[in-house]
Batch of 3 targets.
Target 1
Amino acid sequence: MDSFLTYTVLGLVSGAGYAVAAGGLVVTYATSRIFNIGHGAVGMVMAFLFWELSAGRGLPAWAAVALVVLVVAPLCGALAERTVLRDLGEAPSDVALVVTVALMVALLGLAQTLWPPKPRPVSPFFEGHGFHLGSAFVGAHDLLTVAAGLLVAAGLSVLLRFTRTGAAMRATVHDPGLLALFGGRPAWTTSLSWAIGASLAALSGILLTPVVQLDYYGLTLLVISAYSAAMLGRLTSLPMTYLGALALGLLQSYTVGYLPTSGAFTGLRPAIPALFLFAVLVFLRSPQARLGRLRGAAGVAVASSRRAAPWAAVFVVAAAVAAAALPAEQALVVALGVVYGIVMLSMVLLNGYGGQVSLAQLTFAGVGAVVAARWASGSVLSLVAAAVVAAAVGALVALPALRLHGLYLALATLAFGQLMDKVVFQADFAFGYNGALDVRRLTVLGVRFGTEKAYLVLSAVVFALVGAGLLALRRGPYGRLVLALRDSETACATLGLNARLARVVLFAASAGIAGLAGALMGGLRQSVSASDFMVFNSLPLLLLAVACGVTSVTGAALGGAALAWLPKLQAQFPAAGGLLFLVVGVAAVALRSEPNGIAGWVFRFGRETVAARWTRLSGGPSPDAEPVDVGPVEAVGHAPR
Amino acid sequence: MPPGEPAADPAELLDPVAPGADGLRVSRVTVRFGGITAVDGASLHVRPASVTGLIGPNGAGKTTLFDVVTGLRRPETGAVLLDGDEVTRAPVHERARRGMARTFQRLEAFGSLTVRENVLVAAEIHATAGRALGRRAARARARDRADELLARTGIADYAAHRADTVPTGTARLLELARALAAEPRVLLLDEPSAGLSAPESAALAGLLRGLAGEGLAVLLVEHDMELVMGVCDTLYVLESGRIIAGGPPERVRADPRVRDAYLGPGEGAA
Amino acid sequence: MSAVLELTGVRAGYGRIEVLHGVDLDVPEGSLTALLGPNGAGKSTLLKTVAGLVRATSGHVHLSGVHVNGAAPGALARAGLVTVPEGRAVFPNLTVEENLRLMTYGGRREAAVRETAFGRFPRLAERRRSLAGSLSGGEQQMLALTRALVADPVVLLVDELSMGLAPMVVAELYDVLAGLADDGVTVLAVEQFAATVLAVADHAAVLVHGRIAAAGPPRRIGADLAELYLGGAA
């Protein structure tokens, strides 16, 4: 009974911290319809900044809190809104998602650059002060956190319910144009809400640091807890959000207290928010799909098989030449790049064609690696099994989010990735607790791919086959279907397509490709562990894919190469540290303007060169002249508001 | 309409349900959003081999009724019958497979695909739905059907253009061609002529008559009265969510309640 | 009587689709002018062009003698042009009171705004804590019109006030507009639902296929309407 009280207090304190974070999420979402995946990361950076100011620079704690929460965080929030987030609420949901993921990765990179890993003990505010409640000790910091949670919930309620600014915040998301007609300033209102959101993220980060510790990832993942709580309030109701946060805090605390600390339950605690989120997702009602948007997605011209085949051959030959020329360790790096490229091909299918975002493609690769290690290791069958099992797991992940749209699916994948990291991959049937698995290298039809060099060629062949397969798919009926589904799920359904099922199949296929890549990676490395497939590593992968061109196979090849090469560069210039993550984040944000990424530039450059040559030769117009543009189809009668 | 007076319910007066080819029947459908009743006990019957018009002032609930019929929205009460079978609770794609197709007032063409691909994908969905074998042959037929429909709707010239670059009128015809690719028995058209030129509208009228001639039950929401009067066999008028009149177009047009709905009470008779 | 709002040869549209093919229209000061026409004739586009939401590709829009082609909507609003756009110009996710609170951007105090709203439309007082989206269409339109009442406009543009409303309610709303015109506000009301507005309007114009097909006293216009609307009267 005594311990029950202690766990209750602990749970309420974490819950109050989550409530502060969730309140910030609700405010920004309610005013901009952008769900900020980087919300937790903002809190993380601000918590580090607080540590720097107080512990590092000797500022009194209260002054440091005030400076961070009331000045720096709001300014950063408003700045981020003005520079990268503005109008994203109107963009396709996958674009908004990727941009906030970029924000998150950039902040992670920034934190690791400014504050390189080292122990940074953080003591609670007013340490030693407090009182006893029965046998439980309630610290002053705990009280402060609970009070902050209550104050924030009450303050936000008052702001949104009883002030003109609050009314304007809720009005602007519905119709900024109408708010302007009323005489309000929608742009200013949105900036303000992001400032408040960032401020609350900072506050929650600082308050929860003694619980979570000053940890890049722990604090960043607060977004899942905050999101689960906010989801209970349907991203609008602050009281429900608050209750949800408390419930989550308590659940988590009791889990720690009463579940056995060994076996399958090890590491369950950090996964509670993820499980909670899944539960919420299952019971959530689907929001109304957005109707009346006739705007196609970006895409590059799809190469015909006759044009793609030579390039595939060139790719394989180049890999063979590289394998022959490079020393083994460099061949390993290049081969790794190709394998990452295959993971990115899975993103081309899911995101580039399908418009859905997964934040856990590496986790599916991890599933593939486990299968390849444990079943028929060394034979081609292991590759097939890896793809099939990963696809099945993918379908399982997509199912709860089946009725829901892009954002929810993406968050479900993030939660799934965390669950796998903390629980499943640690289990004995997977990698084992902090363990590694040996994967045997393949023997295909008696040919043994025993070296890194051989694996480089093998990976290149697989990449070429999967890439060519994707292109064939894209050209064919299924590709049309995937694009149609992306443009209007509603129209697809009214034509007789079971749209939800189709989305699950797409997601599963993408997970299957990632699983195949995981199996190859296992064989290449010979020994793999859970840390190779951490969900956080999926994020730079996604961003690089988008930056290099997630709409094309070429982009995936470029992205894979970049991903393999970046850590090398990082190793050569250690000072750069997390800076590279920062670069990736910034690049992905900047590339918002070029949806086809670097590959898009490459294609355009190539086309222009060809066109110029053609013009020189024939003196006539280029063969690639665009068909006559007959103007946009903003239907008359419902022009943009 | 004064309260208490039973709503004119023309569909109820029509012949009893004949199983098989009965077309579309909407029976006493009511839809509420929040506190607003968008559709209020509306009933109508769209017979096979006919064009049935549904007119009414803006905001009368016409598109909401379409959403109920095609399954995008659940009605609070009432039923939707397709060829005598109740489909009120069937999912959207299930109704489509049973022969229902529609276009959208706010366009829902596939913007990333070309005009031809838009129609083709619809034909392919239709040809391969629930079919595990013979998909290849079905797809070949789908291609022929798509090309035939592009020609029939008069948008073949735009076949290679991306759908998000064509004029509104073309996009509307594209939605019509796409709906036809699903080989429906009941076709719901939501303002298909908006954005069309006069000759295009006339061609559309001819096309609609042709479709009815092939046995389709066509329900047409339209503001262009010339088109409505020219092609409809039956006309219903929806006002504030209620069907206030129904019958042959000439009779409906002469109905004082209809003139009131359009022109305001009293003055219409001037 | 001078024209406060004057359009000469205005062409406008969306992208390359031209909707207005040269519109000439004078709206005299302190009058209630009805702009009628069948659906798709370009009425809403005309209003949007005046409000600065759609830019005229040629021709001129003069507001109180000032050439305002290309002026920003915000600038026009500050200069006294109040627009009540089509389709319930209120925030449905906000309560009646919160909608009224947002109308204080016009400079009036919240108490004064409420007094005006509840005095003119007692039904709004009863539903002050309801979400605007849950009001009946008529009540929503009353709420929307309150903004015109408290904003002290020079010119008021109203788009399809009657959309989906019962005739009784429409008549009540148009009485409000007529009252505003009597107070010297220049009102341009776009309507499909002709009879009620013609009963209170000082002038009327009919837009067909992007051109003014007829203009003049409401009575005369009313006589021709059935022809234009139903394509040949029965």
Target 2
Amino acid sequence: MEAPTTSTTEATTSEVLVRADEIEKTYGSNLPFTRSVPVLTGANLEIRAGEIVGIVGGNGSGKSTLMNILVGVLKQDSGAVERTGTVGWCPQEPLLYDRLTVTETFRLFGSGYGMTAEEIDEAKRRFASKLDFEQYLDYRIDQLSGGNRQKINLSIALMHDPDVLMLDEPYTGFDWETYLIFWDLADELAADGTAVVMISHLIEEQSRLDRIYEVRDGHVYDVTERESETEATTGERRRKADE
Amino acid sequence: MNRTTTAFSIGIKEQARNYVLVALLVVLPVSFITLAFAVTQDVEMPVRTLVDGETATVMRGMPEVHGVIMTPITSALIAGLAGLFLMREAKDTDGRLAVAGYRAWQVIAARFGVLAAITLIVTGVSVGVMLVDFQPEYLWWFVAAMLVVSVTYGLIGMLVGAVFNRLAGMWLMLILPMLDIGLFQDPLFIQSEPDWWMKLFPGYWPVRVMVDTGLTTDVDTALSLVWATGYLLLVAVLAIGVYYRATQAS
């Protein structure tokens, strides 16, 4: 098994921003008589600037594991991850500090991103206005509803205008209006050259995605073309049926 | 403001809103220390301590001895729980700070700074409440030993938080100072020198200093304070390593 490597460089042109090569990950335990669970057994993928990429797969297939490795919060057992540019990460469970206010949360993470106080304030107002949480800026995170908490979770991932945005089911708890705003936002970001990667369960969303990766049996399959082929095949079949 | 300062100042605000911790800080010193002085029968008891470098027994009032023991128990208990809460929360969320660009040492400095600040307050309150009823012979030696045992327990709380969940961790951090300081190191219970395994507990060296500098007129335990500090440094290195592992990519 080769030693895992991870590298991060500056984004320059519209090219591959994230590349995963032969990623392997097994969840194990040092305790005797416990089971090791291999999750990824040689996953490869590429994420390009300006793409909206969906990661799909069954429950327990390893989608979140793959995303956590791509983000860098989980270390792969072997294989390499290359990242170019800055990353924004919106985890499935909002990883926020319950007793901080929304404003303090922006300050804490904005400082990490290296933003100035003015830039943090501007980002906070921009997202509060777009996602409609202006009235909650002085509320503590644990006083917010699940949907509003998720809006903050998403905004924190976006506030520094990252080159790559990694979203793990980002719309959980959103009302329909916010859901549509989210997709407008994703389209805007992709148009500006941001690579948007999201774990998705919803079939109807797949038409909005430029590329779809399916995690299955420990591998990652690019099923975008297969979907097109299936569509073409289905169209052909219908045409023949019509004749 | 740099990252460490931001994370530290926001961390302090976060802990100040931890009502369990604030309630413990208000209720425990009065209920443990003041009540210990109030309800303990005022009789002379034999107390094991060091005199001219030798283990000896001196006669002291039971309320004073009880006060000397209950003060570090209170402080260690609150600091231990603070360390536990810090680690539990950090385990869940501090990894996201790393993705946002915080260096490991910046988060570690901020979190351990918050724990140090809490421990200072806890020690100050505990000693302050004790001083209402009892004045140690050498106050600053006593305070130094109090700080060492409190910080040590705060760090042990962090270690416990890395391994156990919140409920199990709370039980452990409630029981450990009671057993260590309140039983194994209490000179009223253990009249002779404690067994070797009792000396492995974090309270052994600091409590020797507190009994000596609180109840006798000479300082015979300067070396014990050095050992206590060594123990603290060892636990600190462990806690930093465990914290690093718990919050970084695994």
Target 3
Amino acid sequence: MSTKSKTKNNKDEGKRDFLMVSTYAMAGIGAASFAWPLIDQMNPAADTLALASTEIDLSSLEEGQAITVKWRGKPVFVRHRTAEEIKNAQEASIDDMRDPEKDSDRVTNEKYIVLVGVCTHLGCVPLGQKSGDVKGQYGGWFCPCHGSHYDHSGRIRKGPAPTNLAVPSYEFLSDTLIKIG
Amino acid sequence: MSKAKFKNPVVKWIDHRLPIFSFMDHELNHYPTPKNLNYFWNFGSLAGIALVTMIITGIVLSMNYTAHVDYAFDSVERIMRDVNHGWLIRYIHMNGASFFFIVVYIHIFRGLYYGSYKAPRELLWILGVLILLLMMATAFMGYVLPWGQMSFWGATVITNLFSAIPLVGESIVTWLWGGFSVDNSTLNRFFSLHFVLPFVIVGVVILHLVALHRFGSNNPIGIDVKGTQDTLPFNPYYTIKDLFGLGVFLTIFAAAVFFFPNFMGHPDNYIEANPMVTPAHIVPEWYFLPFYAILRAIPDKLGGVLFMFGSIAVLFVIPWLDRSSVRSSQFRPIFKIFFWILLADCVLLGYLGAMPAEGIYVILSRIATAYYFFHFLILFPLLPYIEKTKPLPISISEPVLSGSSPASAFAFREKK
Amino acid sequence: MNAKPYCFKNKRFIIQSCTILSLFFSSQVCFAAGDKITYPKLDWSFSGITGTFDRSSQQRGLQVYKEVCAGCHGLRLLAYRNLKAIGYNDNEIKAFASENSVNTLNDEGEVVEREARPSDKFVSPYPNEQAARVANGGAYPPDLSLIVKARSDGANYLHALLTGYVDAPDEKKIPDGMYYNKYYPGKLIGMPQPLYEDGVEYADGTKATPDQMAKDVTAFLAWAAEPEMEDRKRLGISVILFLLVLTILSYFTMKQIWAPIKNR
């Protein structure tokens, strides 16, 4: 075999390898893109997302009462706080709290506290919505699963929960109508 | 097997204890494959890919589907409308069934043309027929799940076939239904079976592959591989050829999924099932039409059912019905002509299955059905006594060496 | 040398198989065309592989549905929020939804009505099929969500049906509560002619002829049946382009890899 044909062979091999790598790379990209719809279908569907906002009418909610509504499959607590409860929440010293937050940062209208009713420890629903419920040492909510005590602002004061009860994003559409989500 | 062929120490360590890498290297990389395979040998791997695609999209669909008569139809529509990319996944699954059958039917007719069922590949063939049977059961039950009019009435008609069995027929049908008509219990069990049968198919496919790799692929001239000069390692020669074939297949498949997704479906299946109203024409999916035609060709209920199942049962025994020692049709001039007649006959049966069962269609169905059984039961055993086969080449590679045209790897010429 | 090719001829084999396969598939089409009355084939904006819906026609179609069809026909698979896709904004959708009411439970567990929200499905005119039949002399006005997909050649069929009310031939007896429609299978339909000249007043000034209204409501219902259609076609074009490139590339790679074998 002459050297000339040898270089031609090498050249051919180079071309072959290049083509092979690009073909298989492209096939790989194709297969990977096919994975996306299969993964994405597990994200919330359009009808689930459409239910992600709920409107709540507070006009019939008397002072001292609380209501629970379902939002995204979870309970949302709304409590119409009494003047005393507001005072307690506002005046409590935040220095020694586990998750220090001022009450004013957690409400839009101080009369109404809106909380996601899921204990930040392991996801149980705390007691305290009904008048007969155990409300814990701080008068807010008490989680019966592992004994977390929340105050009138839904802040963790005692027990294993690491953070305060979450405040969902919401807005007042009117004085007594709120939209969550 | 050569040792220490893997350089990567981790691969080496694992392979020493669990020789999966040696196995894959042996069966997928170095696996000796006849060098003269044509494009019809692409359809086996295409069928495998179709099966995997169906299983993946099916699992994903089952995450969003509700198997209940009150919710099934709506849950499918929710997949089409609200689930992210749900329409894509569902259309792939729906059209995938049709394309799976197209690929498998071509694969089967390739086997018939080139005599791939003959010794020593009888079990390979039988496992293949078993896969076909399982596919048909799976496809039938899958078609019930969207709970449209065709789903419901297809299920009613096909399950009623079993009532033709003497004495116990009625009890069997009631047992299949779990009630006195196709209803919620039926839908639930069909969903369960539709989910699990594909994995049974995977199991039989693995056996099919084990049997294949025992003697290797048949080839267009149907003579045995004589040595390494007749074969090529599977990789890269057939991996790239399979990839090219896959590219062509997927392009056609994508055209159906994205532009004609309902072409092979029936409009009536977009009407929710109504047990009180039967649609004007009940037609099964196209891939069942030839069998449906055989069913209707026989004027007796039990007879029709027997002939329909018989048309598949006969496939199990053709390795013994065909007594010719020559595999490929290329050397069997008469057999070859009859092969095309059989293919035309099956297509005709498919056409007749879609036509109303009246007048000329019934007569034609009977002739076509008769030919189908004649072909396998009479022609196959008798033809070798009549037919003069052409001389076989000495080996696969011999014609290649004398060939000069660029396409000689595919087309070999007889030396006179 | 009299080299007779006994071998398999690739091309001819493929052509033959393709012919036979295409015959097979055309049998499907033949069947669909079986006992069909032929109706005019219209040039819809949404047909073809690049076809899209005409937003203003869809919006007019929604108006026709709302003012003419909705009295009897539901659209239960469509939600009000879906109307965003045909060009309405959130406030318009909210207002549109709130014209309807749905049943819900109040805190005391009583069934009460509330205004429909964008997340609700289109409210059907009848609570169930039974009620619909009673109100329509035994006939059941079908839900229209999938009507275009649930009829063969659905868009043309629907347009033809809506404009197919003509005077019955003299010898034809029309029973009470039935109407003559030349495009309906059997020609007798339980639905009275729905579309009349200026039956609705289009906001965009389009003349509301029965033909125009039929086209618009068909365009709207075609979208209702296949809301994914535009996404589907768009994605389809890119997927097919990608696959073509991959196929061509793998073809040349295959040729390269096989070259030494074939040229030996």
